[in-house]
């Protein structure tokens, strides 16, 4: 089949309030092509008396599967090919999974279907650089961030405590143990004359033993630098959240309900699966977080709406600023993520990396908007 060959006909598209309704038909020839694929795929793993695995005759495979299952699977395959073609041809900026229904389905006839999908609404960007500049002026610079001696000492105390705990665990492994008749330990028994593990003293020798430090003063100075960096990172995060909130507030943008509901269903399904894995009911979870299911879903819906608005606004700014990450960098980052999430499709990982890189560049522009020409 030619790459550009359409696998659908009689296309009709209606747009309304950020939602697109697609109606089309898939020719019976396409259904029959996929029908054959479904049967041949099933044949590979089918075993039947008198036949080796993978050698059951196709007509027997079709009979075993049942006509309803064969045609249904063929229709799914045909839709999965036709739908992306329509999206690409009509350049639709979809932002939700399609809600598909079959409008005509009979053996030996064309397949009719309808798909409802949310698309990115038309909207005007606010003066985003002016917004970024104003908020950036409120942010503390790194040199304005202070770290007190008490904060440094708290970190030192934690390090000494962790070192003492690690030393004690090692000592405990060396202690003799009292065991029961099955050889299982009952309790630890201290060796004669053994003393309680002492907390190490903060000396030049100690700090050199745990890292690349010249002396205690160098150790304290590096702790202070780390604390300043942590506070600076938190300040940048807070600043970016303020920018996102202001962009959303200043933008007249309505998210299609179908997009919000689709995301909300995903949140519910993930929560239900997580609770199932923990042997916890929804009622028990709601009691634990001191909420009701209705309140929880209402909060999630508001959060989803804000996230979607932020995502769309940042994408539009990226387009206006002609921001496009380097292909090689996207592929490198995607490959690194692939090692962590091996079951995720590579294209999905690339899309995610591309979006994150775009957002980072947009936020840098907004944070440094005092050096840019205001729009």
Explain this structure.
This protein has 375 residues and is α+β, with helices and mostly antiparallel strands. It has three domains: 9-118, Alpha-Beta Plaits, CATH 3.30.70; 128-142 and 222-371, Trigger factor, domain 2 (Orthogonal Bundle); 149-214, no CATH class. The chain has twelve helices and six strands. Strands 1-2-4-3 form a four-stranded antiparallel beta sheet. The protein has a two-stranded antiparallel ribbon with strand order 5-6. Helix 1 (28-45) crosses helix 2. The model has no long low-confidence stretch (mean pLDDT 87).
Give a short synopsis of this structure.
By secondary structure, this protein is α+β, with helices and mostly antiparallel strands. The chain folds into three domains: 110 residues, 2-Layer Sandwich (Alpha-Beta Plaits); 165 residues, Trigger factor, domain 2; 66 residues, no CATH class.
Q: Spell the H/E element sequence.
A: EEHHHEEHHEEHHHHHHH
Radius of gyration: 31 Å
Portion of residues in beta strands equals 5-15%
In the sheet with the most strands, the strands line up as 1-2-4-3
Helix content: 55-70%
Task: Provide key terms for this protein.
alpha+beta; single chain; 12 helices; 375 residues; Alpha-Beta Plaits; 6 strands; Trigger factor, domain 2
């Amino acid at each position: 089949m030619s790459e550009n060959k359409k696998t659908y006909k009689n296309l009709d598209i209606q747009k309304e309030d950020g939602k697109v309704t697609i109606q089309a038909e898939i020719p019976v020839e396409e259904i029959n092509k996929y029908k054959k694929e479904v049967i041949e795929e099933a044949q590979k793993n089918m075993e039947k008396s008198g036949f080796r695995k993978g050698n059951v005759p196709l007509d027997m495979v079709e009979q075993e599967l049942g006509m309803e299952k064969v045609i249904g699977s063929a229709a799914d395959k045909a839709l999965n090919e036709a739908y992306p073609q329509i999206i690409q041809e009509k350049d639709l900026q979809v932002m939700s999974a399609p809600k598909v229904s079959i409008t005509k389905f009979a053996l030996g006839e064309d397949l009719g279907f309808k798909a409802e999908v949310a698309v990115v609404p038309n909207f005007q960007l606010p003066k985003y650089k002016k917004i970024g500049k104003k908020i950036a002026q409120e942010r503390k610079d790194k040199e304005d961030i202070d770290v007190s001696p008490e904060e440094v000492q708290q970190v030192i105390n934690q390090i000494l405590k962790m070192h003492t705990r690690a030393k004690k665990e090692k000592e405990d492994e060396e202690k003799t143990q009292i065991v029961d008749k099955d050889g299982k330990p009952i309790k630890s028994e201290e060796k004669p004359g053994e003393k309680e593990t002492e907390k190490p003293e903060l000396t030049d020798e100690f700090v050199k033993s745990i890292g690349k430090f010249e002396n205690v003063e160098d150790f304290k100075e590096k702790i202070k630098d780390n604390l300043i960096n942590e506070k600076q990172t938190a300040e940048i995060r807070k600043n970016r959240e303020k920018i996102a909130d202001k962009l959303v507030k200043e933008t007249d943008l309505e998210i299609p309900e179908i997009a919000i509901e689709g995301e909300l269903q995903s949140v519910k399904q993930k929560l239900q699966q997580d609770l199932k894995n923990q042997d916890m009911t929804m009622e028990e979870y709601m009691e634990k977080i001191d909420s009701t299911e209705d309140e929880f879903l209402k909060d999630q819906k508001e959060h989803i709406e804000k996230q979607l608005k932020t995502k769309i606004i940042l994408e539009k700014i990226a387009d206006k600023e002609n921001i496009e990450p380097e292909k090689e960098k996207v592929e490198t980052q995607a490959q690194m993520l692939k090692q962590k999430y091996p079951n995720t499709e590579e294209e999905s990982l690339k899309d995610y990396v591309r979006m994150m890189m775009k957002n980072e560049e947009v936020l840098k522009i907004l944070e440094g908007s005092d050096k840019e020409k205001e729009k």
